[in-house]
Design brief:
278 residues; elongated; D-Maltodextrin-Binding Protein, domain 2; two-stranded antiparallel sheet; alpha/beta; single chain; ten-stranded mixed β-sheet
């Protein structure tokens, strides 16, 4: 998880290490003329400078409903992201922030997704839906270092022989998801545990048919599903309420955008979802 982007993953976790936002009433800082968004310039499928990500599309939708143009502040989803963008009043909203973090004031969540298992559609692992499946024993699997599935994989003895990938990278110079999917296609690894929105989108583009299955059956901590929100400055409760209303009224259009990018959506409690995405 923005967010998780993201405690998770390539996405959500990067925000967890940013500096704290000031807990003051800053509602008067919100622009009356622009929908000012903080975003990563090279973090597909979430966002990029060309406006090709699903967070770009959702930002454009929300801005159109407010009758404002979108104005971006670009900054890599890495150390200091919140401090250098939202906290410095360079923008008014962060797209895709994991619910529950104290760096921002969270809106209501507008989607819920989960870490997923991705493998080739022709693999005998294609119907694996939990990390404890005995068929994963002895297989070479891809693990994002420090991501929630890594803890479950260690618990099930899957770390030995696994191929590790870095969680924190500058997405302008390195794309971990591309490396993972390339390794699955080539047979370097048999499958991988990835944040669902990234896995779903990358699988849609792969030359080899892939299956992406949300991991909803894991027991114990950490959980593998995350509610994703918009993040605003602490104290901006009026702005938060306005965005909550906007998200609620446009839920169907937002869901359609997410589905078009292959995002595996699950219910609010991570118990049911759309199942495997192919």
């Amino acid at each position: 998880m923005h967010g998780v982007r993201r405690l998770l993953l390539s996405g959500l976790a990067a925000l967890c290490v940013a500096g704290p936002a000031a807990a003051v009433d800053t509602f008067d800082l919100v622009s009356d003329t622009q929908f000012r968004v903080c975003a990563d310039p090279a973090n597909m499928p979430f966002s990029n400078e060309a406006g090709e990500g699903f967070e770009n599309a959702i930002a454009e939708l929300l801005a159109s409903k407010l009758g404002k143009p979108v104005a971006y502040t670009w900054f890599p989803q890495s150390l200091g992201f919140v401090r250098r963008t939202l906290a410095e009043n360079r923008c008014d909203v962060i797209m895709g922030f994991a619910q529950g973090h104290e760096l921002v004031l969270n809106t209501n969540h507008y989607y819920v997704s989960a870490y997923s298992f991705v493998t080739r559609a022709d693999s005998n692992l294609a119907d694996v839906d939990h990390i404890g499946d005995p068929r994963l024993q002895g297989r070479r699997l891809g693990l994002i270092a420090g991501s929630p599935p890594a803890d479950h994989a260690a618990r099930h003895g899957l770390v030995r022989g696994a191929k590790g990938y870095r969680l924190m990278v500058d997405t302008r110079n390195q794309n971990v998801a591309d490396q993972v999917l390339d390794d699955i296609e080539s047979g370097e690894i048999d499958g991988a545990f990835m944040w669902g929105p990234i896995a779903g989108w990358k699988a849609m583009q792969a030359k080899t048919p892939m299956v992406v299955t949300p991991l909803l059956k894991e027991e114990g901590a950490p959980r593998l599903f995350f509610r994703v929100t918009l993040g605003v400055r602490m104290g901006e409760d009026g702005w938060k309420r306005e965005l909550n209303s906007l998200l609620r009224r446009n839920k169907d259009e937002i869901d359609a955008i997410l589905s078009s990018y292959g995002v595996p959506l699950v219910d609010d409690f991570g118990r049911t979802g759309a199942g495997a995405v192919q």
